[in-house]
Design brief:
The structure holds two protein chains of two kinds.
Chain A: E1 17-22, H1 27-36, H2 42-45, E2 52-54, E3 58-63, H3 68-74, E4 79-83, H4 84-89, E5 96-100, E6 106-113, H5 118-126, E7 129-133, H6 136-145, E8 150-154, H7 161-164, E9 170-175, H8 179-183, E10 186-195, E11 197-201, H9 203-208, H10 210-224
Parallel strand pairs in A: 1-3, 1-4, 7-8, 7-9
Antiparallel strand pairs in A: 2-3, 4-11, 5-11, 6-9, 6-10
Chain B: H1 14-33, E1 37-38, E2 44-46, H2 47-53, E3 63-65, E4 71-74, H3 79-87, E5 97-106, E6 118-127, H4 133-148, E7 155-160, H5 163-170, H6 175-187, H7 190-200, H8 204-212, E8 217-218, H9 221-229, H10 232-250, E9 257-260, E10 273-278, E11 287-291, E12 305-311, H11 312-326, H12 328-332
Helix pairs in contact in B: 1-4, 4-10, 5-10, 6-7, 9-10
Classes of the chains: A alpha/beta, B alpha+beta.
Chain lengths: 225, 333
């Protein structure tokens, strides 16, 4: 159940497949999906502070969603589940995106203060708008692709604060219900992407453990339908 | 005071160097045994020469001007310089050419384990021998090199670079969407692929072909599965792969081949067979290669060719990981 039972799991290419499971907003949907495909989730649900769990035929390792591509690219996990927002931001990570799991849906948007024109004005008069975000590379690319220039400011905490106190003219962030935006008198100006949970795979695991990987993908695809 | 070195470069100390050198000697004796003589070319080349070989190839990490104002670049691999060499220095000699190299190359990548901006490649090029036999010879040398490195569990993926371009042409997919789909296939973004294929509004059978092909990988049976999907491009690629596979069987190395219809390499010069090398102990690709029947011709001497390059440092990491995996102490840790 704990680390002891999955000892030797470093020995890649042998033993059960390792799946990186995201903590946080996608955790609930992920555990439900694992239940539906018959993975033993009792241990991972227990609220234990362990990080590695035996899912019965599948080793589950829990981590922040933004760490999933790192572990999967390196092969420390064979497969992983994370949000499309993470994959967009970490586009240079060489992982295979196998399946749209369809839960955890949210939108990546450009938002600004309601009824306020500073974003357009900054672009018109200063040549660039200031955009605060936790997704600097995704934001940068969005503006590049639409032929505009933005000064992207990376912040770690509540992004909504930035336009309220004049750090930025707008924000690029994830929106679920839109409640947080509304409470801070912000409104959506542009939709950048719709993000759901995705199944990703390590390139070598996808090649060398094809049967097991395909088996898991098919079970997840069935369960998602 | 710390004196810095550029990101993506590193110093190598004697203990590691000894192991790298031992590995290099082992590989070198395999190359020599198969008749591949070692060559060296300049680390710096004219930028236009590298671009002629491969305009959409690996990203150049370093470019600079010499005293005459000429634009120079550090090579991104050895295949393009060797194509130049074959077309110029060896212009008056008769093919085939069997050449090998151990050389540093440079790419603009995000530095991480086993992926530096300066790295060493060990490889061979066979110029003047057609598919399938030329390909099979190269794969045989690659297989012997992996054995000599002690990577007996390593697998060689074998795919076909022309499959998707020809298939998309056959399906009349327009240029813009075609490039988009090839990019998604190279990144193996199957979710994006499904979205793009849906947008094409093809027939059900054609959509299924595009979506199922990238997942077909394994033994000889995947060629039968591919053929069932139908279409001239798939049929031709299956025939090329079957011919290579049978030449590999004759040479006794088909056992470590994984046929892979989803394989697409990111370098622009490949035609026909493409290769990738995997070891179950590491998550990175150890090397790759394939046929580049048009590359030497771009330098003025049309000759068929094939080759492979192993990333020396990654092979070394794989050796270390295989040792660790194999040791009973680690299993208890």
């Amino acid at each position: 159940m704990r680390l002891g039972t999955v000892a030797g799991s470093r020995a890649r290419g042998d033993g059960a497949l390792k799946l990186a499971v995201p903590r946080g907003a996608l955790f609930g949907g992920t555990v439900e999906l694992l239940d539906r495909i018959g993975v033993d989730t009792a241990a991972i649900r227990s609220g234990s502070r362990a990080l590695v769990f035996d899912g019965g035929g599948l080793v589950l390792v829990t981590m922040r969603p933004s760490d999933v591509p790192t572990y999967v690219e390196a092969g420390a996990a064979d497969l992983g589940i994370t949000g499309k927002d993470v994959l967009i931001e970490q586009r240079d990570r060489a992982v295979y995106e196998l399946l749209d799991l369809e839960y955890g849906e949210c939108r990546m948007v450009l938002a600004a203060r309601r009824g306020d024109d500073t974003m357009a004005e900054a672009e018109r008069r200063l040549g660039a708008m200031r955009i605060a975000t936790k997704y600097p590379r995704a934001a940068e690319r969005h503006f590049q692709e639409s032929g505009r220039r933005a000064e992207v400011i990376e912040v770690k905490g509540s992004v909504e604060l930035a336009p309220l106190v004049g750090l930025a003219d707008g924000i690029v962030d994830l929106v679920d219900t839109g409640k947080t935006l509304a409470e801070n008198e912000l409104e959506v100006r542009e939709e950048i992407a719709t993000c759901t949970a995705r199944l990703v795979a390590n390139r070598v695991a996808h090649k060398l453990r094809a049967t097991e990987v395909d088996g898991l993908v098919n079970r997840m695809r069935e369960a998602t339908r | 005071m710390i004196h810095r070195i550029p990101p993506g470069t590193r110093d190598i100390l004697p203990e590691e160097m000894r192991e790298l050198r031992r590995l290099q000697v082992a590989l070198s004796s395999v190359f020599e045994r198969h008749g591949y003589g070692e060559v060296a070319t300049p680390t710096i080349e004219y930028d236009e020469v590298l671009a002629r070989g491969d305009e959409r190839g690996a990203p150049v990490a370093y470019r600079f001007f010499d005293a005459d104002g000429e634009l120079l670049a550090l090579r991104t691999d050895m295949t393009v310089p060797i194509a130049r060499l074959v077309a110029t220095r060896l212009a008056s000699e008769e093919p085939p050419f069997r050449l090998s190299y151990f050389a540093n190359a440079y790419r603009a990548v995000r530095p991480q384990r086993g992926q530096m901006r300066e790295f060493t490649q060990a490889g061979v090029e066979l110029v003047g021998r057609d598919a399938p036999d030329g390909t099979a010879e190269v794969v045989e040398v690659l297989s012997a090199a992996l054995d000599a490195a002690g990577l007996t569990r390593a697998v060689i993926g074998l795919g076909d670079a022309d499959l998707y371009p020809q298939l998309l042409a056959e399906l009349d997919v327009p240029g813009g969407q075609r490039d988009g789909i090839l990019e998604l296939l190279a990144a193996h973004d199957l979710v994006g692929l499904e979205r793009e294929v849906d947008a094409l509004r093809l027939g059900a059978g054609e959509s299924e072909t595009l979506l199922r092909l990238p997942n077909l990988r394994g033994g000889a049976e995947v060629l039968d599965e591919a053929r069932e999907l139908g279409g001239a491009a798939v049929e031709r690629a299956s025939q090329r792969l079957a011919a290579t596979y049978s030449a590999l069987s004759d040479r006794g190395v088909a056992g470590r081949i994984s046929l892979d219809l989803g394989l697409l390499r990111d370098l622009g010069y490949y035609t026909g067979a493409i290769l990738e090398v995997y070891d179950p102990a590491v998550g990175h690709i150890l090397g790759g290669g394939g046929r580049y029947d048009e590359l030497v011709g771009r330098f003025g001497r049309p000759l068929p060719a094939a080759g492979f390059a192993l990333y020396l440092e990654r092979v070394h990491i794989a050796q270390a990981e295989e040792e660790r995996v194999g040791s009973p102490q680690e299993a208890r840790a």
